User: What shape does this take?
Amino acid sequence: MEQQLIKLLDNSLECTSCKIKNNQIILAIQSVKEKLSCPYCGCPSARVHSVYEREIQDIPFQDKQTILLLTTRKMFCDNLDCTFKTFSERFDFVNPKGKKTIRLMEKILVTSTKLSSVSASSLLKNRICQSLQKQHL
Assistant: This one.
């Protein structure tokens, strides 16, 4: 099931593991693309420079915080004319240096624009507190 949920974010992703820990759902995900295009020049590359993990917060599921552990590749650009020799893998559902998915950011913005900042903060805190209380019952 987690494979289907991850495919909703990006069709080229796969879930490598899923675990529930306290009030969090943690999904380890990675891309299955073999070649990536340099975002600066468009040249395709299959040469991996290094790999690192990003922690991305997504919208809650079943009153639990959802964390995506996104394995991200840093690639070599093979275009000699490109001014960038390496580039990081990009994903449409999160900004290049973002810590939250775009859909989570949109929900936060919608909530905060419809309410005063005090009311929005209170509402979001109450939802988190209710979620934590349910787990301790």
